[in-house]
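We both want to read discrete structure tokens more fluently, so let's practise on a single case. Once you have written the record down, we can walk along the chain together.
***
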Amino acid sequence: MNLSRPKDYADDPPSGTLFGGHFDESDDYRYRRPNGMDDWLIFYTIQGNGYLKTAEGEKRCDAGQLGFLRAGVPHEYGTVPGSRWNFYWVHFQKLPEIDYLPQEEAIVAAIPEGHMRSRVELAFENILSDSRERSSFWHLLCETSLREVILLAAQQLNQRLDPRIEHALQYLSRHMSDSIRIEDLAKAVGLSASRLSHLFKQETGESVVEHLNRLRLRQAALLMVHMGRNASEAALDVGFNNYNHFAALFRDMFGCSPRSYLKQGRTD
């Protein structure tokens, strides 16, 4: 694997090669391929600002954004003047998941702050580590990480929710069983409590409390049916301290009591 800094107008890597690197470049950095390349190229900007330029125009690839350059497309990419560009990059052959992305020469997808960005960064770290070590199944492991990143990008491009609400949804999912205050959630996503409540309802069609209760109730149902938990145990597991409140919400959502649901062995 060649991890040296690429040269302007450099030759394409050998066809079928999967390799990548981590660069931190000043604003004199640029890379041109007037004839395109045989493979795909993916970027993830950690800090700073990069650009991707094709005949369709120029797109920025800023911090927390994924960028893709399509195979066979003449292009240039580099650091935005006056900035630095700290980024991961990987060359790879087309994977089936690419078809979920827009049919554009250069594609940029913003990844919300929080767990999802950590997930993307870890995927790139795994790709670089596995491709360097080249132990058993390294190529399949790299492709698995790439598939995850591509699908996360496609998910963001399809959902188009406000990034702060995406962050809030991730926070609620990860802290579902904790005692969550709207003030703490608002602080985590950089909004006031009132602004978060309004924007959350506008973007998702439900309140923060309604969404959190729905997450908890679905998880409780799964725990009862698949993990042998009784209704009281499942309620506590997902964050309900009052069983009667849990049971009333459960009945509203599923149309029966938790115990009846368990007896029926339902999985909806």
Notes: Confidence is low (pLDDT under 50) at residues 1-10.
